[in-house]
Specification:
By secondary structure, the protein is mainly α. The chain is about 45% helix and about 10% strand. The chain is built from 14 helices and eleven strands. A three-stranded antiparallel beta sheet has the order 3-11-8. The two termini are about 35 Å apart.
């Protein structure tokens, strides 16, 4: 499905034609009960709001840790590893080292190896169940929190209902995937595009990065397709859909429709200075409706903050092996690497304000206007 209005109707599903699906709050393919999903969404937002990640994160140390032996950041994993460090207090704040070690193993053996790269080796198949079993064992030893959740571990421990430690471990893994995987891959795209189009300059401003994030998610939405299962026979734009059939919504196609976007294949962050109603309706990088990612605002805020720090404080150089994106569960950049060289004497960059607080003004100049 690449028609924007039909896609929005499917995602909103006011007619009740589709089975409810949740990307994160589910066990296997079965969504959690509505009351538990609601509690989980509220808890997730409270946990994210509790931590001042912008002021506590050491970017220079993180870049050094995720670089290879030759100072390069290799695509299809560096962004995930850096964002894992960024969200470390959110995932397991002041927790046992065993839980953090298991989260690191999950990011390496599942998020990177399977969801991004797709090179699932026999070793990965052995590692992922072992990680979940280890998390279940650790969670089974911890009591439910007596007050508001401090991190995702507290969040899954405190969810109501008859959930086993293995169930809570699975939910924790899904939350790590949503927090680290999707955001990390988008960060790679954003920095790569920013360097290629001249954004790696001390003159880059926050409003430039805000539009850069928007245009990155338009051209390369990490969730490149959304799937819904029909719960009843019905028609979509003249086609008959039968109960049980899967409907694929092509986010990537919606964002590149020539009937909606002017020069849709061009990288033009300046288009976000003024959008049409059709463009707003066609832009769904985080989904829409009840199944929409509940933490999308925090993800955008993190991307803007990290992007501003990196592009203002470092000079970049990109090398690609191919021009094609790497398509797996997530839409990742082509194989290759980026090298970031710190700028001497770059002044401290204050934490970026939430996207909702940024009031954009049309700019007469900026990195996206360079020839």
């Amino acid at each position: 499905m690449a028609d924007a209005d039909a896609a929005r109707d499917i995602l909103d599903d006011s007619a009740g034609h589709y089975l409810f699906q949740s990307g994160f709050f589910r066990l296997g393919p079965v969504p959690l009960p509505p009351a538990v999903r609601s509690a989980a969404s509220r808890g997730l937002l409270r946990v994210l709001a509790r931590h001042d990640l912008a002021s506590s994160f050491d970017l220079a140390s993180a870049i050094s840790e995720v670089s290879d032996g030759r100072g390069r950041l290799r695509h299809q994993h560096w962004g995930v590893e850096l964002v894992r460090r960024y969200f470390a207090p959110v995932i397991a704040h002041r927790r046992h080292t065993e839980i953090n070690a298991l989260v690191d193993a999950y990011v390496t053996s599942s998020v990177v190896a399977d969801d991004i790269v797709g090179h699932v080796l026999r070793r990965s198949h052995r590692t992922v169940p072992a990680v979940r079993a280890g998390l279940a064992e650790q969670l089974g030893r911890l009591p439910a929190p007596e007050s508001d959740a401090q991190d995702l571990v507290d969040l899954v421990l405190g969810l109501p209902g008859e959930l086993s430690p293995a169930d809570r471990a699975q939910l924790l893994q899904r939350l790590v995937l949503s927090t680290v995987g999707f955001t990390g891959v988008t960060l790679e795209w954003m920095v790569m595009l920013g360097v290629k189009h001249g954004y790696d300059t001390p003159a880059v401003r926050r409003e430039h990065v805000h539009r850069l994030v928007k245009e990155t998610l338009r051209l390369y939405p990490t969730a490149w397709r959304l799937i819904r299962v029909a719960g009843a026979d019905h028609d979509i734009v003249g086609s008959r859909v039968h109960e049980g059939e899967h409907v694929l919504i092509g986010t990537h196609a919606l964002h590149r429709s020539a009937t909606v976007w002017d020069r849709p294949l061009d990288f033009r962050p300046s288009r976000w200075e003024q959008l049409t109603d059709d463009q707003r309706r066609s832009y769904v990088p985080f989904g829409k409706g009840e199944g929409m990612c509940p933490a999308n605002g925090f993800a955008v805020k993190a991307l803007e903050h990290l992007g501003h720090l990196i592009l203002r404080g470092y000079r970049g150089r990109v090398r690609l092996r191919t021009r094609r994106p790497h398509v797996r569960t997530l839409l990742a950049p082509p194989a290759g690497w980026i090298r970031l060289t710190p700028r001497p004497g770059t002044p401290f960059v204050a934490p970026i304000a939430p996207a909702s607080a940024v009031r954009e003004q049309p700019q007469q100049s900026g990195p996206d206007r360079r020839p």
